[in-house]
Specification:
It is built from 14 helices and 14 strands. The mean pLDDT is about 95. It binds pyridoxal-5'-phosphate.
Length: about 400
């Protein structure tokens, strides 16, 4: 079997639609089948033994490998420009697998001070129990990364654009700094997705995705992915994942595969809406500030231009009357749904300080720019006019 659409130079729309398909298919099926099986029969004991040693290819057991999950891994690896990818049970499964695979007692991590709340909590409170040290810095200024590196640093972890402040970090510059010190760079690419940003092409060694978000895009499944640039790092990741067992289920993989097929279409539409909403909010008298990488006044607008193929569908803003004003907006939207998560066809609004980022102390949040007044908006694919009018009506109540 070979990959059907692995021709170099195929476009991103083509690869998102056909990325995981194999040639030949079993029965000419157009949708990749769900191989909902935990184990695979061996024709002989010798064949089973040969599969275990790796002498012969073939499936053994779904925690190790499964054809439907393989298809999703091939598709995402292709989109990310990776050597290979490993699918995890959730985005947090991807973050924890990377930490488990690449860190050990006594090692040190340099991470963005703005990370998805639980990612920071995982490193700061859980991995610290095993002797892992961490320094959280503002990575949008790469000088801070240089300052934070130590002789025992093994991993630099960043999110760009960052959840929820929308800060943008220069991936290539950070990769150069990390590599000069012999350190691995991992980038959580969830806010951009591989359609808009491919960190591995800019020197990162590992990419983390919460597939729950843009890759799937329909708010109906949770999943994650780790993609690696080299075979060596990929093997460490795969080994850790297989042992810890936070693997994906075939049905989950199939749903995400179905979602990936429309990733480019959805993101084009959503980011067009996001750009228009960012300008609309910037001009609104009740809105005090807006952070969207596509706005010329975003502090890292030029870096976003350089490393992203589009500015994405996430933004954050603050309104008059601080926290209370924000709550009023969230309580009065109707088309937009008040819920955490992001990256779906439906627009979602949430309040990081009291929802996704409650694992951080107020002091940590404020240092990282996650102010109590900050509202995060995941822009979906609805009609722009409906989203604009919905926000306008809600802002009128402030
Ligand atoms: N990384 C980022 C940037 C996220 O926003 C999230 C979830 O919101 C995660 C990781 C965790 O993903 P999951 O909820 O799929 O575990």
């Amino acid at each position: 079997m070979s990959l059907k659409h692995s021709k170099p130079g195929a476009g991103k729309f083509t690869r998102a639609i056909h990325g995981g398909e194999m040639d030949p298919s079993l029965f000419g099926e157009v949708s990749i089948p769900i191989f909902q099986t935990s184990t695979f029969a061996f024709p002989t004991a010798e064949e089973g033994a040969a599969r275990f040693t790796g002498e012969r290819p073939g499936y053994i057991y779904t925690r190790l490998k499964n054809p439907t999950i393989d298809a999703l891994e091939r598709c995402v690896a292709d989109l990310e420009g990776a050597y290979a990818a490993a699918a995890t049970a959730s985005g947090m499964g991807a973050v924890s697998t990377v930490c488990f695979a690449l860190l050990e007692s006594g090692s040190h991590v340099v991470a963005s001070e703005v990370l998805y709340g639980p990612s920071r909590v995982l490193i700061e409170r859980e991995f610290s129990r095993f002797g892992v040290q961490a320094t959280f810095v503002d990575t949008t200024d790469t000088g801070n990364v240089v300052q934070a590196l130590r002789s025992n640093t093994r991993l630099v972890l960043l999110e760009t654009p960052a959840n929820p402040t929308m800060g943008v970090t220069d991936i290539q510059a950070t990769a150069d700094i990390a590599h000069d010190a012999g350190v691995i760079l991992a980038v959580d690419n969830t806010f951009a997705s591989p359609y808009l940003q491919r960190p591995l092409e800019r020197g990162a060694d590992v990419v983390i995705e919460s597939c729950t978000k843009f890759l799937n895009g329909h708010a109906d499944v949770v999943g994650g992915m780790v993609a690696a640039r080299s075979e060596t790092v990929y093997k460490r990741i795969r080994h850790a994942l297989t042992l810890c067992g936070g693997t994906m289920d075939p049905h989950q993989a199939w749903l995400i595969l179905r979602g990936v097929r429309t990733l480019p279409l959805r993101l084009e539409r959503a980011q067009d809406n996001a750009m228009k909403l960012a300008f609309f909010l910037s001009d609104h008298p009740k809105v005090l500030w807006v952070k969207y990488p596509g706005l010329p006044d975003h502090p890292q607008h030029q870096i976003a231009r350089k490393q992203m193929d589009g500015f994405g569908a996430m933004l954050c803003f603050g309104v008059r009357n601080g926290v209370q004003g924000g709550r009023t907006v969230m309580n009065h939207v109707q088309t937009i749904t008040l819920a955490v998560s992001l990256g779906g066809v439906e627009s979602l609004i949430e309040h990081p300080a009291s929802m996704t980022h409650t694992g951080l102390s107020k002091e940590q949040r404020e240092k990282a720019g996650i102010f109590d007044e900050l509202i995060r908006l995941s822009v979906g694919c609805e009609d722009f006019e409906d989203l604009r009018d919905d926000l306008d009506r809600a802002l009128e109540q402030v």
